[in-house]
Design goal:
7 helices; 4-stranded antiparallel beta sheet; about 300 residues; single chain; alpha+beta
Length: about 300
């Protein structure tokens, strides 16, 4: 087993998977702390590198294309600060970092893991329900529907249509772009039959992002949706297999018609889990309210 402990986080490799745990320091970005612990199976890894530096070094995991819904949505546009597949290392831990990288590379060679594209997601998306307020609106997702609620900075024409709800079956793809320079970013849900893409400011299927701290959380919500859509390599008619669910926040659906008592128990469990996320500070008051509304509307 190889393991490296840093203020930025802890990585552990047991020969079959890399366990990524973000650090608890204030300098660790909100996005990584919200995403929490990840287990990256060796078959999802295309490579690993250690980059030494004068002040700090950096371990970087390179995942196979199509193996991870978060990487699929962000397409290499995550900054170093929010990228969960990077670990900032202190100068006196360079030797440990090099050893860790070599252990992973050796395992990749011995297991003959291909570095080409994956034909299915090998990592599950972020847990749901989730709600994020950033830019010109709040996006919430309960595993089946996306809801977009507008705020006081939303363009009047866009807001005039009221809140937007999209069933998972209505969404073809998810796009996320961070703000770059003077250009605002966006989280966009691509819907068949919608008008040609325009600026996110006017698009009722998009949240416009202004470059603030919570913009990256929109990428997590986008990844949660993408994980439940057909994989990019799947035929157009193929429906996605249910993704692995990383936390108890996601429930299972019975094969037979649901009993009302079961629905009631599921509702209470979802609300309790949501309350725990709120009390722990992961969800703000606004995000908690939006996610609670999404759950209540579903049931």
């Amino acid at each position: 087993m190889a393991e490296i402990f840093q203020k930025d986080g802890t990585w552990t490799f047991d020969g079959s998977a890399i366990r990524v745990v973000p650090g608890g320091e204030r300098g660790v970005h909100l996005v990584r702390r919200t995403l929490g612990e990840l287990t990256v199976p060796l078959e999802a890894v295309a490579g690993i590198a250690f980059e030494p530096g004068r002040k700090n070094g950096r371990l970087r995991l390179r995942l196979r294309e199509g193996a991870d819904p978060l990487s699929q949505v962000t397409r290499g546009r995550m900054s170093d600060a929010i990228d969960p597949y990077q670990l900032r290392t202190e100068p006196d831990r360079s030797g440990v970092a090099e050893y860790f990288a070599e252990e992973v590379r050796t395992a990749l060679l011995l297991e003959q893991v291909p570095d080409g594209p994956a034909d299915r997601y090998l990592l599950s998306g972020p847990a749901v329900p989730m709600a994020v307020g950033a830019g010109d609106g709040t996006a919430s997702f309960d595993g089946e529907r996306v809801r977009l609620d507008w705020n006081w900075v939303t363009d009047e024409g866009k807001a005039s249509g009221g809140p937007r709800e999209l069933a998972l079956s209505d969404i073809r793809a998810v796009e996320w772009l961070p703000s770059i320079g003077l250009e605002n970013g966006y989280l966009r849900f691509v819907v068949p039959g919608a008008p040609a893409k325009g600026a996110a400011k006017y698009d009722p299927n998009a949240i416009e992002l202004f470059g603030f701290k919570k913009d990256g959380l929109m990428a997590l919500l986008g990844a949660a949706v993408a994980a439940r859509l057909p994989h990019p390599s799947a035929p157009a008619h193929e429906t996605p297999a249910p993704p692995a669910l990383p936390r108890a926040a996601a429930d299972t659906s019975p094969a037979s018609p649901a009993d009302p008592a079961d629905d009631h128990d599921t509702l209470l469990r979802r609300l309790r889990e949501l309350g725990e996320l709120h009390r722990s500070g992961i969800l703000t008051d606004e995000e908690f309210t939006a996610a609670k509304q999404a759950i209540l509307q579903r049931f």
